[in-house]
Specification:
alpha+beta, Archaeosine Trna-guanine Transglycosylase, Chain: A, domain 4, 2 domains, two-stranded antiparallel ribbon, Peptidase
Length: 210
């Protein structure tokens, strides 16, 4: 275990994710300054249902985009790995910000090729329905579930469920089940919208031949 500075937020961050943050609280401005001085990392555990989650993602400060006159900052970070909080401290020793004794989660990155093909097709259908075709075209062939997790219509609890999964195969199963469930609903909604649009218009119908 190791002591890791913590920055609880009401979002789920994934390994590899690029995250931009606006820092305004004095305790987290202190955290950013410490990161700049020592090159240390910090963790973002999701703050869900009024409590700090046991799992979080360690991130590294990539850069400070802007410093405002009042000391607030815009920063860029990148997700590294998932950890579990064993003990939470409201303040790190001698600091304003929180910290925790954490252990790293071992993850199996091997994916199921058949599932990958199925999910890719389902994602294409989802983005077509939502008018987000460019998102699909920008998707690299070697994408991982973490790369698309924020663009699947998950709520924060479902996003956290992905964080709990310790293998890519398990994450694939979660996404497959989610997409298999929501796609028929979305397709029916699109058909309903088409019927509503047609209502009141002149209809060119072919009568039955009998």
């Amino acid at each position: 275990m190791r002591l890791l500075p913590l920055f609880p937020l009401n979002i789920v961050v994934y390994p590899g994710e690029k995250l931009n943050l606006h820092i305004f609280e004095p305790r987290y401005r202190q955290l950013v300054h410490d990161c700049l001085e020592t090159d240390m990392t910090f963790g973002i555990p999701p703050y869900i249902q009024d409590s700090v989650s046991l799992l979080g993602t360690e991130v590294r400060l990539v850069g400070v985009e802007k410093v405002y006159d009042n000391g607030e900052m815009d920063i860029r970070t990148r997700g590294l790995r998932v950890f579990r909080v064993q003990e939470f401290f409201r303040q790190a020793p001698g600091k304003l910000y929180a910290a925790g004794q954490v252990e790293d989660i071992v993850d199996d990155s091997e994916e199921d090729a058949v599932l990958k093909t199925h999910i890719t097709e389902q994602v294409r259908k989802l983005y077509d329905i939502l008018g987000l075709r460019k998102l699909f075209l920008d998707l690299p062939p070697d994408y991982k579930i973490y790369d698309i997790a924020h663009h699947l219509g998950f709520n924060i609890d479902q996003e956290y469920q992905l964080l709990e999964a310790t293998s890519e195969h398990e994450r694939q199963e979660i996404v497959r089940e989610h997409l298999d469930h929501i796609l028929p609903v979305l397709l029916e909604t699109e058909r309903l919208k088409d019927r509503v649009r047609l209502n009141g218009h002149f209809k060119n119908l072919t009568p039955p031949n009998f």
